[in-house]
Design goal:
78% helix; mainly alpha
Length: 491
């Protein structure tokens, strides 16, 4: 029996996973946290640029408006990236799409580096749009690529590396932003350009690695190229089990032509899959974890931690997150997906309730703020070893090849809209409700726990057709099993 390491190193699979990771989800993670450290320097840059241009200082409202544009344009770019990926990936393939996303990263880095020397905050805004576009394309294609290169027995472990690289990107953004490294006034533009170096590596290396085997077989109909790609990735073998699964999936797809995202929304045979993904995406984005990443400084400060210690606690959060992703990779094939979802959400809900209790305790003990921080760290860990880690695997398991791309587009649109709304409204929410805003997070996590207990089937060790059948057997809100009958007829 081969070890996991031996299976990953028989071919080029491990190299491809690493290259895709740094050019994919790493980019998103870095840009989520990378803007936090140099925010003060960028505000000063806006002020000085405006003064040099108009010979007068801008009003505080003007600086805030320009800064808000810089922050929010990342989500706008991400939404645009999700929209265009369907056309790029469908025509050019997974590998070329990943390379194009890295080219976007290089262009945005050039704009960011040039902005300081040209004294143009408009170039920062343009760079942030391209950063978001890179993230929207790269994260989606990264997860699709992983799902289409992994054999059934390793699908969970391979696809969860998407979460690992997102966490690594977040940690890198926090570490590079420390004043001891690049977090200084003269280097803020360099901090925001670091991911381009990793994107350049992907552009150089990826052309020498194989295209996704499932894409080659099902969408291009090239079984020889598919087998060759599998052997290049995983070593010599006939891969009969993988080829048979793809053949059965192709037969199902022949009975149902490719769909656009809007057509997929109207398709009754994937209604429960879409509802499940939308519910999990809502709970992941609005369950409080995104606020820890985006507004970590303000949240930790409100807990009573001294300012000079906050940066290091944020880095500690990043270390906890990336450590948790390695445990998630080990647990996903042992525990299964379903337990990771409902168990993770349940534990997160309990943690948020305890955070509210601790923040409202009248005891002024100096240890109390650190108890709150420990609960937030635990919340983060439960998220990563639960729904945050498992969603990357689930997305690759519950949709047929013909439905997968439009499903990723729909999920990406929802994710980026929720990300933008959270960034827009959370500052007002925490001002209005203070610590009680965390009660809302607890309720969202409880919703996720209950939904997954009631409706999510276990997907571990099952083919995509078997999983589709289980979803179609759900009979809530309908009197008969007509959808399942239709699916069975197609197959």
């Amino acid at each position: 029996m081969e070890t996991l390491w031996q299976q990953l190193t028989r071919g080029n699979a491990l190299l491809l996973i690493i290259v895709l990771g740094f050019g994919g989800s790493f980019q998103t993670g870095y840009h989520v946290t990378g803007l936090s450290s140099p925010s003060m320097f960028i505000r000063h840059f806006i002020n000085s640029s405006w003064h040099d241009r108009y010979q007068e200082s801008p009003s505080p409202e003007t600086v805030t408006m320009i800064w808000s544009l810089i922050v929010s344009m990342f989500a706008v770019g991400g939404l645009f990236g999700v929209f265009i990926i369907r056309f790029i990936s469908g025509n050019l393939g997974r590998k070329n799409t990943a390379i194009i996303s890295s080219i976007f990263a290089l262009i945005s880095s050039g704009l960011m580096l040039a902005s300081k020397y040209t004294k143009s905050y408009e170039m920062i805004i343009a760079a942030r749009i391209l950063n978001g576009c890179t993230a929207g394309v790269a994260q989606t294609i990264h997860l699709m690529y992983l799902g289409e290169i992994s054999p059934l027995r390793l699908r969970g472990i391979v696809t969860i590396t998407s979460t690992t690289f997102t966490s690594l990107g977040k940690l890198s953004g926090q570490v590079f932003g420390l004043s001891e490294i690049l977090g200084r006034d003269e280097l803020w533009h360099v901090v925001l350009s670091v991911p381009a170096a990793f994107a350049a590596v992907q552009i150089i290396v990826l052309p020498f690695l194989p295209e996704a085997p499932r894409y080659l077989f099902i969408e291009k109909g090239d079984d020889k190229a598919c087998r060759k790609a599998l052997q290049s990735l995983w070593g010599q073998g006939d891969y009969k089990e993988e080829m048979d699964e793809m053949l059965a999936e192709q037969a199902a797809i022949d009975a149902a032509p490719k769909k656009s995202p809007l057509q997929l929304l109207r398709e009754s045979t994937v209604r429960w899959q879409l509802l499940t993904i939308f519910t999990i995406t809502l709970c992941n984005q609005m369950g409080g974890i995104s606020t820890i990443s985006t507004f970590s400084f303000d949240i930790i400060k409100s807990a009573g931690i001294p300012n000079d210690k906050i940066r290091y606690i944020i880095v500690g959060f990043g270390l906890a997150e990336i450590t948790a992703t390695f445990f998630a990779g080990l647990l996903i094939e042992c525990m299964g997906r379903r337990l990771m979802f409902w168990g993770g959400y349940g534990a997160m809900s309990a943690c948020w309730v305890l955070v509210v209790v601790m923040l409202n305790v009248t005891d002024s003990s100096h240890c109390l703020p650190y108890v709150v921080i420990a609960l937030m760290a635990a919340n983060l860990i439960f998220f990563i070893v639960g729904p945050g880690g498992a969603i990357s695997t689930l997305m690759s398991e519950i949709f047929l090849q013909s439905d997968r791309l439009p499903a990723f587009v729909l999920q990406g649109i929802g994710r980026w809209i929720l990300f933008g709304l959270q960034g827009l409204f959370f500052p007002f929410l925490i001002n209005a409700l203070d610590s009680y805003c965390f009660v809302l997070f607890a309720c969202v996590c409880l919703l996720g726990c209950l939904y997954n207990i009631l409706f999510l089937p276990e997907t571990k060790g099952k083919t995509i057709l078997e999983i589709s059948g289980e979803f179609n057997n759900i009979t809530v809100f309908r009197g008969s099993n007509k959808v399942a009958d239709i699916m069975e007829t197609k197959l």
